[in-house]
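Task: sequence design from structure.
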């Protein structure tokens, strides 16, 4: 007999099983020949087989962790419009296929999509969000961005669906947090907090420092779920309101109101100091969930106006000190540049203004300063002897005005010196040069009974100009100018010409000139070294060395060789009372000439160009000779 063929079972989904149960009954033909008594033959038996099939359909994923809001969105913790409501859940699939988390607006049977994202019953308009494809057993997360158009209360219903390619399924069980033992803040519905409205904002300035400024608004909030929302006004100095913390940013704030049902207002006294002219004052309205208004008058400047005051300089704060960069305020003034200007002396002083040290917009309230630096005997106790351009003198009076081209200090407000609009005073520094002729006042100087002082005045950003204030010596001690020994010598080489052994120059024919390039009078010390053709390695033999005493010097050029002063060696230089007076005009340094003569000893037998070196050293002359 024939055996039936096996039937082909079509695929039926992610859990389909085609089982072929084959039972084969074999017919066994047993021919038993019984030739026994009666001659009867035995019966024959046989068994056949039949194929069985069954299709197991796909099953939906199962909930492992039911859906809930990641961030609780409830009446006390609503989700601000423009931010996200986030859901999470976990599901597992018996066939190990990926699944999706679907959040719907209403409880309805969702439509699975083979190999794709399911759709809420009623279509996509009934849908809050659907997650990406998630591996079975992994956590699914999905979100939607809240908008101003949403209602305050928004219900949600969660489903999980697989992505089977042939027969996708959704779990019929819906979860929204309300199926648990007790509803929580992470359950449906989620609550949307809408922005307040803000349509008018103004202040009642102009206001003088010390008076009160008031800001008023037209603002409200339409949310009423739970308890009605209230609104608050913040007035910031800059457009830097932090919507997360609900406070003004680093620019600072003017004032904040309490929460009100509508139209909040706030006031603040204008402090002394306070900036003059217009101040920025930006209004921000938030609700009691720190959600800010948008548009309207939000972040608009009400323009707060404060009047101007005249600055002033305190005489007790004025100090004149040594070169900029000193680690301490050194009031010992020292010149260092010969025949020129020593840069970066410093005058430091404090400028005060009732409008503060900070101008509108964050700039400097004090726009400029003028200074004068002088020897006290010239300027006088209050500086009146050195405060105009016509009194300028490089020896003792340095005047600074807008029209001065002779002396122009560099003045600046010290970095970070102004702590803000609540600070009345700020330190200014002016770096300035002094010529090498500036009179010394230390011990031994002509002006030893005096000192160096400064005066200063300030101009604010509205051109209000203060009077000069002069250094109060008693506040910080006197600033003393030290003696600056400096000179310049010319006339090298000292050329004596050509002479035979036994000859001299007859008179003092060569000249050197010493110029006073410091702030004192000068005298000299003179000395020299032996001359030879191999200088500086002289053999000191009489036949090839012209020793130092063969050179003479004189302060007049008509002196005969023999009448000159014998030059000494460098170990014992000779003092010369040259009486070079202190220089008073920077363009013509005071100076004095020295004249030189030489004799070639008759012992010299070695001809050639003899070279040596003379040393000219200057010393400070007694002040009576300056």
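Answer:
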């Amino acid at each position: 007999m024939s055996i039936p063929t096996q039937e082909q079972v079509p695929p039926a989904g992610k859990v389909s099983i085609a089982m072929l149960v084959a039972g084969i009954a074999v017919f066994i033909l047993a021919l038993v020949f019984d030739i026994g008594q009666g001659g009867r033959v035995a019966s024959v038996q046989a068994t056949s087989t039949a194929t069985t099939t069954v299709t197991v359909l796909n099953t939906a994923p199962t909930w492992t962790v039911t859906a809930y809001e990641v961030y609780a969105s409830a009446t006390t913790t609503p989700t601000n419009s423009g931010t996200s409501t986030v859901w999470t859940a976990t599901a597992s699939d018996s066939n190990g296929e990926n699944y999706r988390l679907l959040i719907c607006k209403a409880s309805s049977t969702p439509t699975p999509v083979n190999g794709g994202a399911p759709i809420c019953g009623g279509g996509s308009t009934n849908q809050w969000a659907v997650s990406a494809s998630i591996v079975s057993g992994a956590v699914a997360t999905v979100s939607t961005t809240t908008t101003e158009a949403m209602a305050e209360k928004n219900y949600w219903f969660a489903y999980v669906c697989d992505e089977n390619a042939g027969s996708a399924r959704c779990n019929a069980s819906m979860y929204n947090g309300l199926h648990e033992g007790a509803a929580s803040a992470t359950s449906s519905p989620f609550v949307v907090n809408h922005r307040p409205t803000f349509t008018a904002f103004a202040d009642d300035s102009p206001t003088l420092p010390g008076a009160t400024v008031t800001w008023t608004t037209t603002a409200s909030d339409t949310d009423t779920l739970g308890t009605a929302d209230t609104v608050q006004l913040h007035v910031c100095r800059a457009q830097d309101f932090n919507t997360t913390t609900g406070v003004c940013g680093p620019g600072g704030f003017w004032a904040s109101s309490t929460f009100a049902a509508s139209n909040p207002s706030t006031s603040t006294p204008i402090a002394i100091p306070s900036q003059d002219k217009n101040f920025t004052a930006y209004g921000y309205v938030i609700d009691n969930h720190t959600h800010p208004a948008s548009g309207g008058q939000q972040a608009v400047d009400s323009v707060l106006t404060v009047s101007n005051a005249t600055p002033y300089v305190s005489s007790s704060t004025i100090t004149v000190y040594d070169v900029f960069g000193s680690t301490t305020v050194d009031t010992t003034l020292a010149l260092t540049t010969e025949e020129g200007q020593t840069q970066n002396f410093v005058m430091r002083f404090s400028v005060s203004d009732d409008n503060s040290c900070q101008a509108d917009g964050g700039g400097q309230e004090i726009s400029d300063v003028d200074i004068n630096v002088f020897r006290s005997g010239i300027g006088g106790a209050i500086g009146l002897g050195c405060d105009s351009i016509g009194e300028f003198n490089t020896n003792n009076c340095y005047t600074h005005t807008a029209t001065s081209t002779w002396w122009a200090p560099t003045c600046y407000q010290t970095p970070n010196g102004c702590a803000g609009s609540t600070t009345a005073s700020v330190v200014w520094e002016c770096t300035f040069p002094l010529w090498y002729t500036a009179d010394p006042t230390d011990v031994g100087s002509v002006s030893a009974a005096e000192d160096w002082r400064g005066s200063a005045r300030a101009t604010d950003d509205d051109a209000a100009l203060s009077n000069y204030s002069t250094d109060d010596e008693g506040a910080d001690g006197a600033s003393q100018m030290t003696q600056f020994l400096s000179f310049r010598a010319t006339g090298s080489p000292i050329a004596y010409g050509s002479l035979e052994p036994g000859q001299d120059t007859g008179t003092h024919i060569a000249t050197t000139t010493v110029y006073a390039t410091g702030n004192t009078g000068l005298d000299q010390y003179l000395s020299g070294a032996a001359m030879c053709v191999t200088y500086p390695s002289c053999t000191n033999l009489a036949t090839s060395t012209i020793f130092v005493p063969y050179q003479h010097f004189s302060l007049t050029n008509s002196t005969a060789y023999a009448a000159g002063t014998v030059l000494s060696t460098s170990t014992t230089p000779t003092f010369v009372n040259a009486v070079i007076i202190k220089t008073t005009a920077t363009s013509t340094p005071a100076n004095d000439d020295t004249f030189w003569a030489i004799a070639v000893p008759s012992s010299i037998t070695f001809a050639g160009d003899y070279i040596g070196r003379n040393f000219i050293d200057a010393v400070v002359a007694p002040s009576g000779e300056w």
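The first strand starts at residue 62 and ends at 69.
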